[in-house]
Amino acid sequence: MDLDIIDRTLWQVRELLTNDNVAGAIYLIKGLLPADQADVFEDLAPEQQQALLPEMDPDEAADILEEMEDEAASDLASQIAPEMLAYIVDEMEPDEAADLLGDLDPALSQATLAAMAEPEDVRPLLLHPDETAGGLMTSEYLAYPQQMRAGQVLAAIRQWPVRGHDSAYLFTVDREGRLAGAVNLFDVLRTDPQMPLSAMMDRDVLKARVDDDQEVVARLMSRYGLAAVPVVDADDRLVGVITVDDLVEVLEDEATEDIQRIAGTSPLEQPYLDAGITSMAWKRMGWLLFLFFTALLTGSVISRYEGLLSSHVILTVFLPLLIGTGGNAGSQTTATVIRALAVGDVALYDFPRVLWREMRTAIVLGVSMAALAFPAVLLWGTSPIMAGVVALSTIGIVIWANSVGSLLPLVAAKVGIDPALVSAPLMSTLVDAVGLLIYFNIAALLLRA
Amino acid sequence: MDLDIIDRTLWQVRELLTNDNVAGAIYLIKGLLPADQADVFEDLAPEQQQALLPEMDPDEAADILEEMEDEAASDLASQIAPEMLAYIVDEMEPDEAADLLGDLDPALSQATLAAMAEPEDVRPLLLHPDETAGGLMTSEYLAYPQQMRAGQVLAAIRQWPVRGHDSAYLFTVDREGRLAGAVNLFDVLRTDPQMPLSAMMDRDVLKARVDDDQEVVARLMSRYGLAAVPVVDADDRLVGVITVDDLVEVLEDEATEDIQRIAGTSPLEQPYLDAGITSMAWKRMGWLLFLFFTALLTGSVISRYEGLLSSHVILTVFLPLLIGTGGNAGSQTTATVIRALAVGDVALYDFPRVLWREMRTAIVLGVSMAALAFPAVLLWGTSPIMAGVVALSTIGIVIWANSVGSLLPLVAAKVGIDPALVSAPLMSTLVDAVGLLIYFNIAALLLRA
Fold first, then answer.
1. Residues near B360 by Cβ (< 8 Å), separated by ≥ 6?
2. Helices and strands per DSSP (H, E), number in chain B
3. Facing residues of A138 across strands?
4. b/e per residue A18-54 (b: at least 16 CB within 10 A)
């Protein structure tokens, strides 16, 4: 991940291409790892990408297309002749190949499949939506009939070439192709060659269904530390395997989405620097506008108290402070609960426990802050009554903010909405408006008394 | 991850233990997977944990201690006699064993090591800080001299039992024990038994140094899709291997920390439901108090404009709206940039590009919002001049918020501070105070004109 090297290579490749030295450019790119090659490629002009890719070895071109962002890869692939593209796609991992072909124009995708040497690896994968276990799995895995003997399995591995099989696990199936178990290659090597797989396999294998959501599968793999998870169809037949590199990608994307949603922006579909300006603005506009208009409601709350405010302008001074405290306390709670739900630390049946924890936390927080706020506001130069208004409002607002902040994600999860999606904006609106009501009512009570 | 089953088992185990039926309780727990067993265990009373653990098979007790949260595991282990504990720790993965022993009282840790059958696997791992590659790696990996032949390696694997080796990769070393390369077991099986490893190994192996930060290693593994990464010392000698389950844990913890920090709370060290109330309140107090006191400064800004405010109380009505818009736009930018930095989509040299992107996004956002805000505020019932003040302030505040929101994480990263740690609170303070100045100055200019 030495980004300097990527930048230097990019600069040199551009220079070489300006002088039509394609061979030199390819030589430089070859010196990098695939993820870095893809980074360099993505930063080249489309014409340069189209000039370079067909000149590279198909397996290296395949690595680059696999590592490029989906959109950039399909943009590039659509500019290449189907016969040429077929050579490259044949060298890709079947799951990556299916992702790419699924993103292409159907006519081009069909033409490419027709020109491929091994389309049968990829074709079934095209049937599954991207965000499911079926969309994540590869059709290139090792599975053997459970009645096979250890020695026969070793002989089969010797005869049938497997490309970069990272995991030491092999799966076993029964006569109907249903998943039966898993064996570790190290154990197969060590056991008596006459031992059938059925006698040595682990039968309690965790598995995913083709239509399972990819996040559910990722959680399963991370919770139980699985390096690979077999995928079965409705009849329990083994149809694919999800490997750990896919898991990491899903977990990373999921966390990124949650972070962006908690901060009130729809998830970007591309890496930050590749997203268009209008698309970025658009993704952020929704929440900003929603809050803008709900803030007009908050404004209506304020305008009802214009009399109080014009007789005590000092109340305005503490408005940002109290709104801010409510918003911050609410965000802390919402983000903490959303993440706890996402990583599985909290389940829906923990609802009452979470609420009870947040209420107690809010009381500790509110009272401590009020104890510090009272002298601070006094020293700042107001009357003791005004300091009391601020201190009491702080307690009320923090308790309210933590209640709303914990309830919203839990309710969202209960009714099946992504908690990160709705909690932050709704929380902010509810906390602002009600917080002001708490403040003004305490003020009216104490200042008029 | 069927949480219902965990809950039901927990309830039944408690019932059985109340009737002193330890064997029955163990039988029920055995039916679960280790991660689920640990969940049940963590929810039992300490006396119940201490009664159960020594009665279980050492390898099952080891699985449970591995899967329990670090603090809960060390609390439980400290209550067990060192001779008993040694049996269990002998069955743990060396890296997990080292983590546990490192968390214990040194006297107990020494006594346990002294009673262990294989302390030499664990002892060297105790030297490395938890958050480094050395703290993450295991000493249980397969490495062979590069001059060994494929057939000899297979014979060695047959003779020397390896426990649950998930990865198909073996590492090779030279005569000085320095990392030479990596080979895939499938290739070793398939090649001529007389072929030396040095003739078939991949020499360009990505590796980590023992003292590398664990996040750097996790990023390396996720970027290049590595299932296992070898760890070398200062002399390039192979000393351990980091496996993918550790990677997933680091990535998850890192994302959780970032989410909590972005929302202004110090990261919780335990899972949500295990954290104490005062510890939770304490972790959130810091930011709340900081913002509370900086909001007093914002209040000072307001009190300077008391004249303007008392002559135009309507200005107060739009205060929460404009402060909110600034805060929201700033949070969106900060969170997006922090995450882009964390996953490597943005590097420090992208500084100018990021700023330029955010400025353009801010102009698109600000102008669009102002165009909608002007009629909305007018319809809400104010003068055209007041609506103009709100619209112009919106543009100014959004541009300011996006600039601050993108600059702060980049500057923090540049000077080597975690961007998630400082950006959110500082952003909020700067945006609030300056945002009000923008608002009041535009108001003073237009309303007095």
1. A277
2. 23, 6
3. A241
4. eeeebeebbebbeebbbbbbbbbbbbbeeebbeebbb
The nearest alpha carbon in chain A to B165 belongs to A168
Q: In the structure, what pLDDT confidence band is assigned to residue B449 with cuts at 50, 70 and 90?
A: low
Nearest-angstrom CA–CA distance, B244 and B242 = 7
Beta carbons of A35 and B224 less than 8 Å apart = yes
Tell me how many degrees the CA angle B394-B399-B400 measures, rounded to the nearest 5: 100
Q: Over chain A, what is the mean pLDDT? A: 88
Instruction: Domain B3-127: give its CATH code.
Output: 1.25.60.10
Nearest to B242 by CA among B269, B256, B222: B222
* Sequence-ordered list of residues with C-beta below 8 angstroms from that of B90, at least 6 positions apart, any chain: B58, B62, B116, B117, B118
In B250-384, DSSP assigns E strands to none
Phi, psi dihedrals of residue B79, rounded to the nearest 5°: -95, 5
What is the rounded distance in angstroms from the CA atom of residue B324 to the CA atom of residue A327?
A: 9
Radius of gyration of chain B (CA): 30
The answer to whether the Cβ–Cβ distance between A325 and B291 falls below 8 Å is: yes
- Which of A215, A440, A223 minimizes the C-alpha distance to A311? A440
Residues 6+ apart with CB under 8 A from B210: B128, B132, B133, B134, B137, B231, B232, B233, B234, B239, B240
Q: Is A372 on the interface with B (CB under 8 A)?
A: yes
Find chain A residues with C-beta within 8 A of B221's C-beta: 248
Q: What's the complex ipTM?
A: 0.75
| Residue matched to tokens 């209040």 | B299
Residue B66 CA to its chain's centroid (Å): 19
Residues in chain A closer than 8 A to B310 (CB atoms) = 310, 313
Chain A contact for B245, CB < 8 A? yes
Alpha helices in B116-176 (DSSP H): 119-122, 133-136, 150-159
What is the C-alpha to C-alpha distance for residues B439 and B445, in angstroms, rounded to an integer? 10
Long-range contacts of A161-167 (CB under 8 A, 24+ apart): A161/B190, A162/B186, A164/B184, A165/B168, A165/B184, A165/B186, A166/A227, A166/A243, A166/A244, A166/A245, A166/B167, A166/B168, A166/B169, A166/B227, A167/A227, A167/A228, A167/A243, A167/A244, A167/B166, A167/B167, A167/B168, A167/B227
Residues A425 and A264: beta-carbon distance below 8 Å: yes
pLDDT (tens digit per residue) in A405-445: 999 999 988 888 888 877 777 788 788 889 999 999 999 99
Q: What is the mean pLDDT of residues A281-298?
A: 83
Do residues B26 and B7 lie in contact, with contact meaning Cβ atoms separated by under 8 Å? no
B contact residues 346-365, partner A, Cβ 8 Å cutoff: 346-347, 349-350, 353-354, 357, 360-361, 364-365
Class of domain A3-126: mainly alpha
Domain coordinates of chain A in residue numbers?
3-126, 143-251, 272-448
Q: Are residues A310 and B306, on separate chains, in Cβ contact within 8 Å?
A: no
Nearest CA in chain B to A379: B296
pLDDT given for residue B179 in this prediction: 96
CATH homologous superfamily of B272-448 equals SLC41 divalent cation transporters, integral membrane domain (1.10.357.20)
Sorting pLDDT into bands at 50, 70 and 90, what band is B385?
Answer: very high
Instruction: Please compute the mean of the pLDDT values over residues A4-9 and round it to a whole number.
Output: 82
DSSP per-residue letters across B203-221: -----EETTSBHHHHHHHH
DSSP string, A36-68: HHHHHHHTS-HHHHHHHGGGS-HHHHHHHHHHS
State the best of A332, A379, A382, A430 to mutate against chain B, taking most chain B CBs within 10 Å. A332
* pLDDT per residue as tens digits for the range A74-117: 999 999 899 999 999 999 988 889 989 988 999 999 999 999 98
What pLDDT does B1 receive?
44
Architecture per CATH, A143-251: Roll (3.10)
